[in-house]
Q: What sequence folds into this?
């Protein structure tokens, strides 16, 4: 563990400046508002190792792919999130010496990120080489109320003697992606304009011609009074700034407040971009820092009201879960159907900022439970808009007649990933996209979605599965060859139980969904199916036939589902027996050894047992958990949460708690020594699931939601909010029992343990543990 | 088919100049002598598409590898053959206009490559833009008698009027590999010296510091008389030349004879390289073109005497087989144990010029049957010298205690290839290396080799297999997971029959070999085993135990061996039913589709049936052939020959002939539209095997060699020479029967059909077909 951070219920706090932690903190203290995100880089120059990162949602680059040996079907491009304009920059000179925390003496350094209001602040006392001492304080936020606005309040106090300062607020588009495959620059400068205390700069991306414009305004005060300056202006094709000279008397404070707008051509006509950027920055300045911050805080308060989780008696667990919720909201707000949740959000470049099945399998439940339904629905719409590309992806592999294969990794619906065993074979992702529709419907009861994209997506996916299986004469069954399950430590296997199970479920649910949609609007449903060229009798008949005869490997003797053909032929040695020096195995073992071992990267059979829980009895859950969990090395950040939930479900609360700890503070404690590259945003949703679905015991039987909370022995109490249908419920769990309070919204029905209940606003239910 | 070449029994002949055929001809007319090789580029400049290629055996470059996603165990470098000094170059100006066959009018173009003497010649009549007409004639060879020497006779005859010529013989090291991964130059110039009618140039390779020096001398005659010239000299760091002006009267001929030496630091101390190169070129000039050519021809005559194949009544088949034999001898002579046979020899860059299992499985039998035993033995020594690296390769994957895994692709013993399913899994190659020892021993009876490397290699390989299998409780057997057989259209499968079978054979043979060696020299054998830390009882016990319990998948019902687990679950549709437009499938289908299909790239189960023929009865051979051959798409150049041999073995001579045609003229007819990249050298050995082992019916029962020839109906007769133990046999087959004549060497015993025979020099045997 590398916890240089202080435990705190509502904040990240870093005290003392250690350069070696810098890149980690840059990721951990990232701020974002769904539209844009910014690593916690310093405003002033920093000459040590740093990853400056500023990202605008939806602005990506189709980087030329890099492969060793080409396989037919591979995509040519790997889309990646673009490191965009450096808008935070304020260069500082003190008596001609550049302020650079890597080169000066720093004391009393404190950095804080408050989850309640998403405000990043930093203080330090600095002694320059030239002997000058100053106190530095910087605050910034990207507005949740005005997504295109960021604001910085940057204070310098002269400590011992008066300081001659040069300040240079700037915008810089000359930025590169560290993960560029061929060391190419992705931006080209367009326009630059600079005036006194204002500047605007725009650039376009190569290939796709995304345009981004940024503008700033700033104010200066000295000792609380406005300071009039006559800046020197700098204007280059990729860089604009103002240079200001100011004398700060000893004990006095200079405050530079920088108001920045960052706009993209996703939201504005390219020709108006520059002007709009300028106007928004100007408007932000008129509103002022404090008022901007207030409206920003209001939005955050609403988010916390909908979805806070409170844990008593375990401040680190409290910090971990709130941090997870906080970062998820920073990454995705559901305002824009073109956006999604990159595994690292706006906190780093790795994994290209693209969309993975993480969204449907992990993030969707979080947004369903903590936000208005429209947020989750945007995630469904995102995939619906990509349906044409999904059909193209499938066609590239040889599928036809509207079969859709959603990509493993994507920005615009096209597959980006190039590892045949993943790209072509880890097709269970297609099931997750279908399951998300089902999950959304049961949670929100918004069945109308089926008529607004759901049916098309479900039919496309079902058609894929119907073509992906084939009849085995030998077995007298349909089989599914050449797949990789969620456990990526097995590649190109036959009859992966999870993939086949979810395929079968998709075929079944696509049929049910057509019936549901028909029930809502027969005519419209017929129109949709006609447009799809759907052969109702033939296709549905074949789907049923496949479901009835699909091979699902089971071990009758052990009473378990078999992960894939051949798995039981392995040497089965519990992971606990592995020498600690060889963990994680993906850093110590050859790929050959990993593949042939029995070790499981993340839930595979158990992913299915988790998703389709109601299909299995307790004995089945226990036997599969007891067989597979000990073989699981949890080397994906997505692994522990599912196991934690299942452990809770079968009454192993201590095991559930142990596994919960592996997920909830993954980044805060930097378990995998990689947080500097960016946060594990999508797995943070797994932490939320571990509490709500695991300890909170939220589960489903058909359309009925059930709550069966339990309390880990390490906690005194915990409580979570749950957006459920039209209501916000607050579930509080203590040693004594459970209280469910209807906080707002309409009446909702659910089950608390074995009793059906209906609650209205203000209503409270109690369940005693004794 | 793209046969722009004339059929001829002993030559390649290209008549007429078509620029579109240029790169193909550059590969097809390549010359080489084991030490160096040269594509058939023109001596003068050529501005059209061309791949200039000059290669020095053993001089390679460890190019930085390129992968999409790194897997633990991958090598960092991909060694590739280096395009080396352009030594053939003669720039020609005619009245100031550069002679460039891409820009002038060419007529009466004839290019010939004579297999008997490996002499490349070319003639053309040229009209320059400036109206000058000349006749051009060039001959060159790289000496089989003096491997470091190449000689060029370059003639220009002035046709209509006298010509003012500028000739510039040069050496140029500023060459690049077209297949460089990162567009880097691999050479750095060292020394350059130029004098009158002489020059010498040396360079070193980056990273590995190989040094190569080249030198030239030249003579000029005009109308048969020596011409005295005063050349202008050009000396740059990577380029040296002489520029000569000469007036050639109408009807007269100017001859420039260029003598070149190309030496490398593999054979000379770096400090003497330059001087030696200069001396060798000088010496070659003293000997003269005709005398050099005579001694070169003598060496070739010996090669043909040992290993010619004569086919009557089928000139294209005759040309194909002689071309194959010819190119194999050009590529490898067995003079140097550090060298091996790259799949493209000296004819292109693709596949890096590295060593593959092709050598042991295909080339070794050819050299055993057509050359002195020392040639084949060098190939064994090559692998023995790489044993330490093979042990390192295995260690990188997690194996230990001296287990050796020979690489899939290598230059110096280190693995170069980076596709996990090949690098880590196509491990049957290890079996081929062991089998080569066995094959060498039974053919030559040189059992002493076991004491000079054989035992170490066999024990290292056996140790690998013993660790690579594991015990399956479920099956009560040893199993081998995660392999790719020779059929690379199946990846990461379990219990590939061929791999398991050859593994078992290796374990068995390593034990036998130890016994044989002990019988020869107990003390020395003990010393070797002690050095290996060999636990005789423990290890041999375990080997036997594994062999006795290794899972070999069989289908009792169909009486066939199963290629790998799950194969019989596939949809089994004969390749003949594939739409022709979709062939070859590797160009038309996604990798996903290929993997899940039943189609077989090259012999897999049948590779085992071929190698271990004597273990199976005729029924087994027939059933497996009838099951697998129809599913085989022969998309490896190594595929048809094995099938042709097996077809012959089970009496399907017409099928054998059909498959033989697919291999013997693969490059001459450019079946795969890729000959421009280089020839398929290693599969040429398969053509030889198809005749000798297929139609010729050469096979083994234990240590007994058996000949059972048959005659394809398309041929009137055929005859082959066979180096067998100390003898050279000539086997002639006509419609009437078979004649075996002992041409030279000591008495040898073998079986002709079912009769044991012993032949001495001059002895003849007859077998009548009627």
A:
């Amino acid at each position: 563990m590398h916890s240089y951070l202080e435990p705190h219920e509502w904040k990240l706090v870093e005290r003392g400046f250690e350069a070696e932690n810098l890149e980690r903190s840059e990721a951990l203290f990232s701020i974002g508002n769904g539209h844009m995100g910014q690593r916690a880089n310093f405003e002033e120059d920093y000459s040590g190792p740093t990853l400056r990162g500023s990202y605008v949602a939806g602005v990506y680059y189709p980087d030329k792919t890099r492969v060793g040996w080409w396989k037919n079907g591979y995509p040519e491009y790997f889309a990646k999130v673009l490191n965009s304009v450096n808008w935070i920059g304020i260069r500082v000179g003190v008596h001609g010496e550049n302020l650079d925390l890597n080169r000066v003496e720093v004391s009393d350094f404190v950095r804080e990120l408050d989850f309640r209001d998403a405000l990043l602040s930093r203080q330090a006392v600095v002694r320059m080489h030239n002997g000058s001492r100053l106190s530095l304080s910087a605050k910034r936020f990207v507005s949740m109320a005005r997504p295109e606005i960021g604001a910085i309040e940057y204070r310098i106090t002269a400590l011992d003697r008066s300081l001659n300062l040069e300040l240079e607020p700037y915008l810089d588009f000359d930025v590169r992606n560290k993960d560029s495959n061929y060391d190419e620059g992705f931006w080209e400068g367009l326009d630059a304009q600079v005036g006194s205390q204002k500047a605007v700069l725009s650039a376009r991306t190569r290939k796709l011609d995304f345009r981004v414009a940024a503008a700033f305004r700033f104010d200066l005060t000295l000792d609380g009074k406005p300071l009039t300056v006559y800046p020197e202006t700098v204007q280059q094709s990729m860089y604009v700034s103002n240079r200001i000279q100011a004398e700060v008397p000893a004990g006095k404070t200079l405050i530079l407040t920088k108001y920045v707008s960052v706009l993209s051509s996703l939201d504005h006509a390219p020709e108006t971009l520059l002007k709009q950027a300028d106007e928004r920055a100007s408007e932000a300045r008129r509103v002022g820092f404090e008022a901007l911050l207030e409206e920003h805080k209001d939005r955050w308060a609403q988010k916390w009201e909908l979805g806070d989780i409170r844990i008593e008696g375990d401040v680190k667990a409290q910090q971990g879960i709130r941090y997870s919720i906080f970062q998820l909201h920073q990454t995705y707000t559901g305002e824009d159907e073109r956006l999604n949740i990159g595994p690292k959000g706006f906190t780093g470049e790795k994994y290209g900022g693209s969309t993975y099945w993480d969204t449907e399998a992990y993030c969707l439940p979080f947004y369903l439970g903590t936000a208005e339904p429209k947020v989750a629905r945007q995630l469904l719409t995102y995939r619906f808009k990509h349906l044409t590309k999904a059909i193209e992806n499938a066609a590239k592999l040889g599928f036809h007649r509207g079969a859709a294969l959603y990509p493993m990794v994507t920005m615009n619906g096209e597959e980006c990933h190039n590892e045949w065993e993943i790209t072509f074979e880890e097709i269970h992702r297609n099931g997750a996209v279908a399951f998300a529709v089902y999950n959304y419907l049961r949670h929100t009861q918004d069945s109308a979605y089926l008529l607004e994209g759901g049916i098309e997506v479900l039919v496309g996916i079902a058609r894929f599965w119907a073509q992906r299986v084939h009849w085995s004469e030998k077995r007298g069954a349909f089989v599914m060859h050449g797949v990789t399950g969620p456990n990526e430590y097995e590649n190109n296997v036959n009859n992966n139980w999870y993939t086949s199970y979810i395929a079968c479920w998709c075929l079944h649910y696509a049929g049910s969904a057509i019936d549901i949609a028909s029930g809502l609007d027969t005519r419209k449903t017929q129109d949709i199916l006609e447009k799809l060229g759907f052969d109702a009798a033939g296709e549905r008949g074949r789907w049923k036939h496949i479901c009835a005869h699909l091979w699902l490997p089971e071990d009758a003797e052990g009473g378990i589902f078999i992960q894939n053909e051949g798995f039981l032929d392995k040497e089965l040695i519990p992971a606990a027996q592995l020498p600690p020096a060889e963990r994680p195995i993906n850093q110590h073992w050859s790929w050959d050894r990993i593949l042939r071992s029995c070790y499981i990267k993340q839930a595979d059979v158990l992913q299915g047992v988790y998703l389709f829980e109601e299909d299995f009895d307790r004995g089945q859950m226990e036997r599969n958990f007891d067989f597979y969990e000990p073989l699981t090395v949890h080397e994906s950040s997505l692994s522990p949460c599912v196991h934690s939930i299942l452990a809770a479900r079968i009454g192993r609360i201590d095991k559930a708690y142990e596994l919960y700890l592996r997920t909830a503070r993954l980044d805060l404690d930097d378990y995998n020594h990689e947080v500097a590259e960016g946060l594990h945003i999508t797995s943070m949703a797994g932490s939320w699931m571990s509490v709500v679905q695991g300890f909170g015991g939220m589960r489903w039987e058909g359309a009925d939601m059930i709550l069966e909370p339990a309390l880990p022995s390490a906690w005194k109490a915990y409580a979570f909010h749950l957006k459920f249908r039209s209501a916000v419920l607050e579930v509080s769990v203590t040693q004594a029992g459970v209280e469910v309070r209807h906080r707002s919204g309409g009446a909702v029905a659910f089950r608390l343990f074995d009793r059906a209940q209906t609650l209205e606003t203000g209503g409270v239910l109690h369940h005693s543990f004794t």
About this structure: The first helix of chain A runs from residue 22 to 28. Residues 27 and 608 of chain A are 33 Å apart (CA to CA).
